[in-house]
Design a protein that fits this description.
The protein contains 14 helices and 13 strands. It is of the alpha/beta class. It has a seven-stranded parallel sheet with strand order 3-2-1-4-5-6-7, sandwiched between helices. Strands 10-9-8-11-12-13 form a six-stranded parallel sheet, with helices on both faces. Helix 2 crosses helix 14. The longest helix is centred in the middle third of the chain and has 17 residues. It is globular and about 60 Å long.
């Protein structure tokens, strides 16, 4: 029997996305972040295959890069779906001299074979390009695709992570991408405002979220209490706040889980523990033993446009959050489970925690934004679903 196809079904078939080339800002084997959640959503919601391209160095090497390399080699952080048939992980050869023209020329030669393969994928109408970080490769592939195929997901003020020539190069590439792609997402209000101011582009605000479920059990408020942090520990990490919090509750354990990419104080309080990073699949079970989540970031140009995933994860499982006043955290100031460190009399912290955990579990949990809902909304705006 011959089947008929309605007009709307015909349009859906024409617009179907069968493959996604994703230029990731982090390697697949790293603590789960927005890129991992996005790629898994894309496969589930769009039914497409995904080619995850690990990032290449966009600046000269630093000592922290060696630490990052060691952490990746010793910790199996990649998500459980990383070896599924729908995902291909591509690693491009590159020298760490991209800010220099001779470095870009050398890398273009080193990457020519895989570049041709990726370009061939983008030559089909059912393939899309998503750029998670500015790079020379991103701009080359952007020119190989049509504007409507390309989405630039701006997650950070990337040039602020660099200095000197590298910062200028990243700014140049960022501006070029913003002018070239057909669609732009951003994760924070400040990034959205900057894109409008600098380029007149109306970026879609696609906020971060959480897929963790509430931990409804009541934590026992007996020592040791646990105040935890999970995530990358780098230059934006404010050790002074960690020390103050640890001193204010000496019978609590302050546990910091994550790759250590920066120097830490030689003398930390005895109740501060630096522990290895954990897979995202294990985060919920880990947090079920915590009494508060910690986000001790410095307030500077780098964190000014950050809306941390940690906030959403901590609150979705029912934890109160101890955070410094940076970036888009100020947007959440009406949340009674968010306690800014600058405003909190730290000697009162034990009392506040006791009061928090005496409440019913349903009161402690905040309904926060969901990854799938956020990505669905963003994809709908740009016509991808």
């Amino acid at each position: 029997m011959q089947q008929t196809v309605s007009g709307s079904e015909f349009v859906l078939q024409l617009n179907k996305i069968r493959r996604l080339v994703y230029l990731a800002p982090v390697e697949l084997n790293s603590p789960a972040q927005r890129p991992h959640h996005f790629v898994f959503w894309a496969h589930q919601a769009l039914g497409c295959e995904v080619v995850w391209v690990d990032p290449t160095p966009a600046r000269l090497l630093r000592w922290s890069d060696w630490r990052r390399y060691k952490a990746k080699k010793t910790l199996p952080l990649r998500p459980s779906w990383a070896r599924d048939a729908w995902l291909t992980n591509v690693r491009m050869k590159a020298l760490p001299f991209e800010p220099f023209s001779v470095g870009r020329l050398a890398n273009r030669w080193l990457q020519s074979g895989k570049f041709r393969l990726l370009s061939a994928m983008l030559s089909t109408k059912d393939c899309r390009l998503v750029i998670g970080r500015p790079s020379a490769l991103a701009l080359q592939l952007c020119h190989a695709a049509t504007a409507d195929q390309a989405l630039y997901d701006v997650m950070d003020n990337t040039p602020a992570f660099n200095t000197g020539r590298a910062a200028r190069w990243m700014q140049q590439i960022h501006h070029s991408l913003a002018r070239s792609v057909g669609h732009i997402w951003c994760s924070a209000s400040k990034l959205q405002a900057q894109l409008h101011l600098e380029h007149g582009r109306e970026a879609v605000l696609v906020r971060n979220g959480s897929n963790l479920k509430p931990t409804l059990g009541k934590a026992a408020m007996t020592p040791p209490w646990v105040i935890g942090f999970v995530g990358t520990i780098a230059s934006w990490f404010d050790w002074a706040w960690v020390i103050k919090v640890a001193a204010s509750v000496p019978y609590a354990e302050v546990r910091l889980y994550g790759p250590m990419l920066t120097d830490f104080p030689h003398t930390l309080p005895s109740n501060v523990f630096c522990l290895p990073a954990v897979r995202h699949e294990d985060v919920a079970a880990l947090m079920s033993h915590w009494h508060a989540g910690l986000i001790p970031f410095k307030v500077n140009n780098l964190t000014d446009s950050v809306d941390p995933v940690k906030y959403y994860e901590y609150r979705s499982v029912g934890l109160p959050v101890l955070s410094s006043r940076f970036g888009d955290m100020l947007r959440h100031s009406d949340d009674d489970g968010l306690w800014f460190l600058e405003d909190l009399p730290l000697p009162e912290l034990p009392l506040r925690l006791g009061q928090w955990w005496s409440q019913a579990a349903s009161v402690r949990v905040k309904i926060v934004s969901d990854w799938d809902e956020n990505f669905n909304r963003g994809a709908s705006v740009i016509g991808w679903i």
